[in-house]
Amino acid sequence: MNPFRKNESKETFFLPVSTEEVPPRPPSLPKKPPPKICGSNYPLSIAFIVVNEFCERFSYYGMKAVLTLYFLYFLHWTEDTSTSVYHAFNSLCYFTPILGAAIADSWLGKFKTIIYLSLVYVLGHVIKSLGALPVLGGHMVHTVLSLVGLSLIALGTGGIKPCVAAFGGDQFEQKHEEERARYFSVFYLSINAGSLISTFITPMLRGDVQCFGGDCYALAFGVPGLLMVIALVVFAMGSKMYKKTPPEGNIVTQVVKCIWFAVSNRFKNRSGDITKREHWLDWAAEKYPKRLIMDVKALTRILFLYIPLPMFWALLEQQGSRWTLQATRMNGNLGFIVLQPEQMQVLNPLLVLIFIPLFDLVIYRLVSKCGINFSSLRKMAVGMILACLAFAVVAVVEIKINEMAPPQPRSQEVFLQVLNLADDEVKVTMQGDENNSLLAESIKSFQKMPHYSKLHLKTESKDFHFHLKYRNLSVYTEHSVEEMNWYSLLIREDGKSISSMMVKDTENVTTNGMTAVRFVNTLSKEVNISLGTNLPLSVGEDYGVSAYRTVQTGEYPAVQCKTEDDDFSLNLGLLDFGAAYLFVITNSTNQGPQAWKTEDIPATKISIAWQLPQYVLVTAAEVMFSVTGLEFSYSQAPSSMKSVLQAAWLLTIGVGNFIVLAVAQFSGLAQWAEFILFSCLLLVVCLVFSIMAYYYVPVKPENIQELADKQIPYMQKNMINLKTKNTKL
Questions:
Q1: DSSP 8-class letter at 564
Q2: I want to staple 59 with a disulfide (CB 3.0 to 4.6 A). Which of 213, 228, 344, 466 is the partner?
Q3: Phi and psi at residue 41, to the nearest 5°
Q4: CB atoms inside a 10 Å sphere around CB 368
Q5: Cα separation of 153 and 161, whole Å?
Q6: How far are the Cα atoms of 21, 27, 28, 29, 74 from residue 24, in angstroms, in the given order?
């Protein structure tokens, strides 16, 4: 007898037996069936779940559509920082489903998890919307509120992601499998409908509605937040109708523990005297059931194929970051509609809805009739190639945009334009400098300069000496400039003489596909200009210069202006896409004040429609890769491992976003070169994936139990003479 053996309770071995006859229990009343939709087999509760999913997806995709431009234009981050934070948020959204699934399966259950994390979700939207109010604090407050809000949104959306669809499936009885399958189709449709509508609407709320003197990001974030509140209320309304299954334990946790035990047990029993086992997971046989071990074996075969997948998602996820930033430098006027840059993202869900039936019913069938074995893994490889081609097209478009964009001043360079606002021509020369030949010709009164002149500096800053010859007068003036900046030298009448003033332009005004305007007021009184925004633009008297103000593109035939004793209107003409204009307000005629117009930055000539081919290619890649990949994974894995596969699939998307984050922060490449880099990296990964797929042997799910039955005697035979240590046998 082992003296250290614990005394076992006798209650487990001896049970009292009564000789008395136990009276039969009365039969329980039949359980009332849940209400159905219009007499069908569909539970009424799924209507609340589908509406909840539509509103939640509207909330998520609507907020995310304007997120990159919010970073760039409201928080004034660089393009690389905006891209990095965008993909860090995306990555977090795909890591948190693991946490949500664990909470639902091991602790709270699906219903309570959805309710509690939806409250976190709503709180994140509220904080995010507050961070977009210009009147609430300064830049640091906006940044902190934005990051806190995004973190809560990531926790909320990721936490409920694995719960909502499964909770809807729980509402059906086992005999209604066909109705459950149709429910998932409607559920998927609600996701795409929410994405499609919100991606089109929220950019309009940002760009077409003006608040606090600029784009209304607070409204663009607030409306998705309101939809999330509606989603939560609708879901809670169906509480009494739901079938709520209790937590049953998280299979992901069991899989991780099984793998960890197998590895640690193999390490403890690495002696040469112990018989080796056929598979490294067989070392978990001392603690875990054979069925679980064989299921995990089947799972690891598929997870091995998942290793190259994050590179594909690194390309696909850039539609909301790099591609949107590219669209800001393109002309969104298509003639029949004017698109905001982020509205191009609506093409993806729209094309997904078109391509899925097109590929399933037409393309795949035609390929099959040609005698080509177009297996799932081959479809995924072709999807990778299409994504490579999409990024090659993106790179070509980027190169073309750069060719047509105005040049940028480099180190020890400045760009200068001279605007003659006097009533006669002026000859401008630079004294004692190698740049004097650039401005040797006379400049006529109100002459529009064709372009900026490039001036070279020998230091980071320099004082330029100008000689102005006006009629019979010679005026000498001096102005200081700093490298890598744009300047306008304004020449004005000063009584019978002339003088000059140097104005620093906003270098490379990025106007988010809109138009930037600024004004010079030659009148003797301050002018307030109404540009359709909440706050009028004030321009000081006697050659006061305003800051740039972004406005919508279009015709402006009568812009209302006001001085302290007069009202008048200015005809600004057509303000084109992506251009920056300077208007000089003069009153030299009997017709009243007029506006003289010149371009600081020319309008964008490349149409945003040139992004259509890249969206077609990348969406076709997504349909061939994503839909096929999930279908293949589910066909190869045991039924008990479906949720683990879903978690692993989401993790590959999160890792892909992290790859974009790293490249954006540390590559240091030009944008077109970065696109080429991603295309080449995915091409290499596609080659590796093709080799892995070539050697992969598909397994039918019904054969997994047969393999387990064959291998278990072998596993039991090798369990002799093991160093179990802390292992429970």
A1: S
A2: 228
A3: -90, 10
A4: 11
A5: 12
A6: 9, 9, 12, 15, 74
Rounded CA separation 430/477 (Å): 10
Local structure of residue 36 (DSSP, 8 states): B
User: Which sign does the torsion angle of CA 439, 444, 445, 446 carry?
Assistant: negative
Cα Rg of the chain, angstroms: 34
Per residue in 620-636, pLDDT (tens digit) is 999 899 888 877 877 77
- CA 296, distance to chain mean position in Å, is 33
Question: 213 and 349 in contact (C-beta within 8 Å)?
Answer: no
Q: Would you call 81 exposed, middle or buried from its count of C-beta atoms within 10 A (0-12, 13-18, 19+)?
A: middle
Tell me how many degrees the CA angle 84-67-194 measures, rounded to the nearest 5.
125
What does the block give as tokens for 665? Answer: 């922060």
pTM for this entry: 0.80
In 3-state terms, what secondary structure has residue 587? coil
* Burial grade of 542 (CB within 10 A; 0-12, 13-18, 19 or more): exposed
Give the alpha-carbon dihedral of 50, 52, 54, 57, to 10 degrees. Answer: -130
Give per-residue pLDDT as tens, 427-475: 888 876 666 656 667 888 888 887 788 888 888 888 888 888 888 888 8
Amino acid residing at 489: L
Strands 559-562, 527-529: pairing is: antiparallel
**657 three-class SS:** helix
Strand partners, 419: 490
Would you state the pLDDT for residue 727?
Answer: 32
CB atoms within 10 A of CB 128: 27
The CB density around residue 268, as the number of other CB atoms within 10 Å, is: 16
Q: Does residue 166 contact residue 101 with C-beta atoms inside 8 Å?
A: no
Q: Angle 671-694/376-404 helices, nearest 10 degrees? A: 170
Q: How many Cα atoms within 13 Å fall on the side-chain side of residue 309? A: 23
Q: CB 271: neighbour CB atoms within 10 A?
A: 9
In the chain, the amino acid numbered 414 is V
Helices (H), 171-317: 177-207, 217-237, 251-268, 290-305, 310-316
Helix and strand numbers (H, E) in the chain are: 19, 21
H-helix segments, 588-703: 612-622, 628-636, 642-666, 671-694
- CA distances 254 to 105, 261, 287, 292, 705, Å, are 12, 10, 12, 9, 19
Structure-block tokens of residue 637: 């894995």
